[in-house]
TrEMBL record:
This is Fatty acid hydroxylase domain-containing protein. GO terms for biological process: lipid biosynthetic process. It comes from Fusarium oxysporum f. sp. narcissi. The chain crosses the membrane at residues 48-69. It is found in: Membrane.
Length: 340
């Protein structure tokens, strides 16, 4: 636990006073923590600790909390799940124990693969696969790498998911047996509750290959890993109350994918599903239009509110000027009467 808390991003999030600091102090604090972390650990340990901590904090813990909520208060959980009660996690202790064991096995496998890929790259090339220096990446470079890696991940995820995991071959049968044992909306634990081979093909290689092609800073890689982990955890939750039109649409399409037995909606974002006509339900373009209309409505409401405030202020000014004029006229009348 001490090692996990030594991660700069973890200590930053757990700091109770961080919300009141300025952006500059936040960046400085993160820089100090990151520098201390990379100087006190080897790049190999930084890679293992960072990737493991990210998946534990952003996937395992939220998934267990969600599972506890679904099984502990099903009467409430079913009201916010796609498909209602049929989509709740099974209240079968033996089955859930097996799934949790499979999750831990896959978590161990992906962590070992993170370390093995680091060592293999260093052995072949003679360098670290990702830059572990204390110097942080520039914001523009970080954003550019994130966009490129996200795009590459989406392409690889779609075609691997569609052509390998849902094929008639051995890998497809393994994926169907472990990940699609029931036809209902998923719960977050199912992200890792797959056979190790299809799991790594689905959740590790589509993320790692674009990253190793760019070889970004390790902070960028950890941020990329964190974004992907949060996305997978939320969109596989099966909840119909996920905030945001875009994220809610991704969650709905993932629920349809599981409920249909894996016949549609193979991508994470839905762009390639729309392009290849493999989507079902409202597509990503509908979500984008709804999001745009939502913001336009807000802008129009803000404009109307501003015009209303301006009109009200104008009315107040007129009343104020009118009162002043009335007072001045009354004063002049009183002066005339006094003179008479």
């Amino acid at each position: 636990m001490d090692v996990l808390l030594s991660l700069p991003i973890i200590s930053y999030l757990l700091s109770p006073a961080s919300a009141s600091w300025s952006t500059s102090l936040n960046i400085f604090f993160f820089y100090v923590q990151w520098t201390t972390f990379v100087l006190t650990h080897t790049p190999f340990r930084v890679r293992l600790i960072g990737s493991l901590a990210t998946r534990i904090i952003l996937f395992l813990i939220p998934s267990l909390v969600s599972l506890l909520f679904d099984t502990g208060v099903p009467s409430i959980a079913e009201s916010i799940k796609f498909g209602g009660r049929a989509s709740l996690a099974p209240r079968n202790a033996r089955l859930l124990t097996r799934q949790l064991g499979l999750v831990l096995v896959n978590l161990l496998c992906v962590t070992l693969l993170e370390g093995a890929s680091h060592l293999a790259f260093r052995y072949v090339v003679g360098e670290n696969d990702f830059n572990p220096t204390a110097l942080l990446p520039l914001p523009w470079q970080l954003a550019k790498h994130l966009v490129l890696m996200m795009t590459g991940r989406e392409v690889l995820t779609y075609y691997i998911h569609r052509n390998l995991l849902h094929s008639s071959g051995a890998i497809g049968r393994l994926h169907k047996r472990f990940s699609h044992a029931r036809s209902a909306a998923p719960y977050s634990l199912l992200v890792f509750a797959d056979h190790p081979i299809p799991f790594l093909l689905h959740h590790f290689f589509p993320m790692y290959l674009p990253a190793i092609a760019l070889r970004p800073h390790m902070v960028t890689y950890f941020l990329f890993l964190a974004l992907c982990t949060v996305e997978e955890t939320i969109t596989t939750s099966g909840y119909s109350v996920v905030p945001g039109i875009i994220m809610g649409g991704m969650t709905r399409r993932r629920a349809i994918h599981y409920a249909s037995g894996g016949d549609c909606n193979f991508g994470a974002w839905g762009v390639l599903d729309w392009a290849n006509d493999t989507g079902r339900g409202r597509d990503v373009l509908d979500d984008v239009r709804a999001e745009a209309e939502k913001h336009n409505v807000k802008e129009r409401s803000a404009d109307k509110l501003d015009s209303g405030v301006s009109a009200l202020q104008g009315g107040i000014d007129k009343l104020t000027n009118g009162d002043d004029g009335g007072k001045r006229r009354s004063s002049r009348l009183r002066s005339k009467r006094a003179g008479n």
